[in-house]
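Handoff note, outgoing to incoming analyst
You'll be picking up this chain. Sequence as last confirmed:
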Amino acid sequence: MSIKIINSNLRKILSKKYTNSEANRFVENLKEHIQKKNFFIIDLKENNEQKIKDKTIFLSSFLGKTVSQDMKKTKVVEIKPNLKMLKKNKFSLKRNIRYHQTNTGGSIHTDGPQLLKTPNILIMSCINNAKKGGDTLIVDIRKIFNQIKNNKPKIIRELSKKYYFETRGFNFRKDFLKKPILTKKKREVSFRYMKEYIVTGYEKAKKNMNISRIEALDYLDKALNSKKNQIKLKMKKGNLIVINNKFTAHGRTNFIIDKRHPRKFLRVWVN
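Most recent structure output, in case you need it:
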């Protein structure tokens, strides 16, 4: 299915001009497309924030069950700098604050690595982008996997072992969990990663990371941050991106906090 057809059909769905059979058939095709591809972008053709939010929620409901994103069970999260928390943390991701509450760039990751089951699909819609910076970065993990497998197969073995992740933002019984970064089942690669949450996960578990694991993470970060492995996008107001969170990592470039022109996205997790 081409992006042009996806956009055309999605606009039909969002305008609510469809039959149930048409909707069901299209959603199944869409899920199949997401499984094969990494992401796609559509233009909601909206400037009103509430209408962008309504359409984001509506589309999410078609793709599956929305997942709570924090201890308050929030289903639609605003991605924007939390100035109060940033001031306390000295603009660092090291303590308490979550990535979506900062203006930090880099940190290529998948969403929900602190959950027992990471969300299958990530949906983000742009309310307002930064004038400088704030570009979205997309990385195909299947491509990274093959690169590492061909050049450093021992790194694959290390990344397939269990690592400690801090369960930041959630009120679980433990403030860390232990999961592999890479999982491969039936030829399908699944990826879970947020470097900062691993570092603090080891601190929470009061464990030391051995040299082979440190080297594996360094090698992985180098591949993730290589520009040749990244697709760079400038999201515009009313744009919506759907990402396969199982084998697609993402991040952003640094951006300047401008109170007159604040960067703000909406995010939904779907299973």
